[in-house]
Design goal:
This protein has 161 residues and is mainly α. The protein folds into two domains: 2-84, no CATH class; 92-160. The protein has helices spanning 2-12, 17-27, 30-34, 48-58, 63-81, 92-134, 137-160. The longest helix has 43 residues, at 92-134. The protein is rod-shaped, with a radius of gyration of 34 Å.
Length: 161
């Protein structure tokens, strides 16, 4: 059967990228495979039922063998055509994906930093409130000095970014 030999030839040869994409479309379903025409093989389209009965006469396993060949050829074509779209850090697509991933991680870290900074600001405000309630001048001065030191650390870390 001509279709069987064509599918087997796909497994051993590497078609061009254009042929790969076309063959992937044609081998995605049994019906598309039956209706397939391929000029270099002089194949003509037939109905799926006619293909099933013809393959039943040609092969011991019947249409099942032809369908297995179709699936193997489809997998082979997908593997052969895969290098163009691989997300590899050495090509443009991979690098763009890496940049996108790093930017999302950066936004997550910045969001976490904003939450921590806000919590620290609330804590400092609460501490200042309690220092005023104690009404002890020495503790108020100590608090102001420590608060200034904390704010300088925050300012220093923000300027480093």
């Amino acid at each position: 059967m001509q279709l069987s030999s064509f599918l087997q030839s796909i497994l051993v040869t590497q078609p061009s990228q254009h042929e790969c994409l076309l063959l992937i479309k044609l081998l995605k379903s049994q019906g598309a495979m039956a209706a397939m025409t391929w000029p270099s093989q002089d194949m003509q389209p037939i109905s799926l039922n006619a293909l099933k009965s013809a393959s039943g006469e040609c092969f011991v396993e019947g249409f099942h063998k032809l369908d297995k060949l179709r699936i193997q050829a489809l997998r082979h074509l997908k593997e052969v055509s895969a290098p163009i779209g691989r997300n590899d850090s050495r090509n443009k697509i991979g690098l763009l994906n890496k940049i996108e991933q790093l930017e999302s991680e950066k936004q997550l870290v910045e969001g976490n930093l904003l939450v921590v900074t806000h919590a620290l600001q609330l804590s400092l405000n609460l501490c200042e409130k309690y220092v005023r309630l104690v009404n002890h001048p020495e503790r108020a001065e100590t608090f102001k000095a420590e608060r200034l030191e904390i704010l300088q650390m925050l300012s220093y870390s923000q300027n480093r970014q």
